[in-house]
Specification:
The chain is mainly α and 261 residues long. It has 11 helices and 4 strands, in the order ααααβααβαββαααα. Strand 3 and strand 4 form a beta hairpin.
Length: 261
């Protein structure tokens, strides 16, 4: 292996950063999977009842990844300590919620002319879990080589000390009742997106955006926002080998009633 030295290496650098982004996406997926384990099982239960070979291999992989990235991080130029930033005020949170609601409305209008209804096959797979009226209303668009647009307000989010989610790396984004897939429609991504559509339907767009911001301010990570956790959880439940039928709307209403969002 050699270092990049001249302008002819620009393509190689682009390729390297593309592969770095792909690896980061896989790490985020693994991080979420581990987060789900922590939600459902204690470390004592995992140590006592988990398969030792799987746990040992997982621990070894995690340690190796930590060592690898720490070695790279140690080579960063030294910088002074990051200044501590104040928590957003209620007014700033309300403003951020407005940004999100506006973005979802704007992109809904953008994709509305090209979005298509769900196929009958998709509806047949989804109907035990979602209402027929929702499935009839949902429209989808597969971008195939394109990506959803990054919100214009993201620099303002960073200025407040938060790192916004990488929407171009998400499998799908729900724009109210239109789902845009960054590549192609997949069942897992569709389930996740439809859960968000139900959340928006039950909560209303403004309340959904407000709760998303509150969750993000508290957890600082996209996939640990309660609205996202529930969507990930229900999509995982759907994909289990022996999945039982359940109503996503009932599940969402239960979380609303329990104040879990």
């Amino acid at each position: 292996m050699s270092s990049f030295q001249n302008s002819h290496d620009n393509i190689s650098i682009l390729q390297m950063n593309s592969e770095l982004e792909d690896a980061n996406l896989e790490l985020l997926s693994a991080h979420y999977a581990v987060h789900q384990l922590r939600l459902h099982y204690s470390s004592d239960d995992l140590a006592r009842f988990g398969r030792r070979d799987v746990l040992r291999k997982s621990a070894e992989a995690a340690t190796a990844l930590h060592d690898f990235y720490t070695t790279i991080e140690d080579k960063f130029p030294e910088a002074g300590p990051s200044p501590s930033l104040p928590l957003p005020t209620p007014e700033q949170i309300a403003e951020a919620a407005g940004w999100i609601a506006g973005y979802l409305k704007q992109e809904h209008e953008r994709y509305s002319p090209v979005a298509a209804p769900l196929t009958n096959e998709c509806k047949a797979r989804m109907w035990p879990y979602f209402s027929a009226s929702l499935l009839d209303r949902i429209r989808v668009v597969e971008l195939r080589g394109e990506r959803v647009r990054v919100p214009e307000f993201f620099p303002k989010v960073r200025a407040l000390g938060f790192e916004p989610p990488e929407v171009t790396h998400m499998d799908s984004v729900t724009f109210i009742d239109i789902v845009a897939f960054n590549q192609r429609l997949s069942e897992r991504a569709l389930i996740h997106a439809l859960v968000h559509a139900v959340q928006i339907e039950v909560l209303g767009l403004d309340r959904y955006a407000e709760l998303w911001v509150y969750g993000f301010v508290k957890t600082r990570t996209h996939f640990t926002v309660p609205l996202e956790v529930h969507a990930f959880s229900l999509s995982s439940k759907f994909l289990r080998p022996m999945v039982e039928r359940f109503s996503v709307e009932d599940e969402v209403l239960r979380w609303v009633s329990d104040g879990r969002y």
